[in-house]
User: Fold this.
Amino acid sequence: MESTDLKKGASGAGKAGRIALRVLLALLIVIVVAVLGILFVFRRELATVATLEKQDNFYFTMDYQADYGLDEFLEQGATNDSELAAFMVKKLMKGLPVEISLPNLGCSTFAAETPEGEKLFARNFDNKEATYVLVHTDPKEGYESISMVNLSYIGFKTGDSAMDKVLALAAPYIPLDGVNEAGLAIGVLQLYNEPTVQETGKTPITTTSAIRMVLDKASTVDEALALLEQYDMHSSANAPYHFQIADASGDSATVEYVDNVMSVVRAEKGKKLATTNFVLTPGDSYGDGKGQDRWETLTKGLEESGGVMTEEEAMGLLAAVQQDKIKDGVFSGTLWSCIYNLEQRTLKLVCNRNYDVVREYSVDWK
Assistant:
């Protein structure tokens, strides 16, 4: 009798063990399926951050392969950086909080053309020392483009942490200059008048998200202007800005907002347009701001050359107005210099004023 009870006990224990094993196996299968599901859902985001590659001190490249939902954003818009950040948190960051902070931007831009007639757009980005990325985007409903993004604006540091990699997913919405496959280029520069707050009942848009819209959806300066007119502009970082835009036909314009009214400034006939950090619109506000010395240097260089120069000469003109200074113990100067060839859809890039090293990229990447 005792032997029979022992056998029954052993049998029961074995059965319980088998049940526990099956339960554990089932849980393991559920976990594996869940993990695989998450990896599938976020596969494009994971593929994007996998391309984040450090090229030099403070400088990265990234091939953006996820859907950043521009059309969805343009339907709802944003009146400030917090609202833009909220959209990015929901759409791109998967709940990870992000803040946008744009400090003072110096900057210089100008349009020119090569002796062969290829149109150029040149850009210096002047700011405090920061980490930045050249990001490639190729949306299904939009133009392929490359653009320069200051990642420090969203708290990105060294790129080594998982946090940094997720933050990099916000890059499409904070470009500062770039060119698309249609040969349309744009750059933003700071002003020093009142921030722009348009309230005419149109969908609101912020400074940096407007640049993304233009790169994705405009092929000419006129198309870019028509797009901007469809939205109420709200300044990023509560500071005023203007844009210089150029296209492969040679057209170029500076767009600024004076007393919350969009104004378009073009070069005089036969001349090339340059822009720095003061208001160009004729009127009471003309000249307000900074960078008149840089503008004079650029304008003189364009006049002396007739607006015709090689890409190397254009880079030399940018070097002539580079900024390099220490203020309150903090470096502030030219972080990058770009020569965009609007016919070749290419970029010659100099990082951190090292004009002996020129990196070359194209819109179709690498």
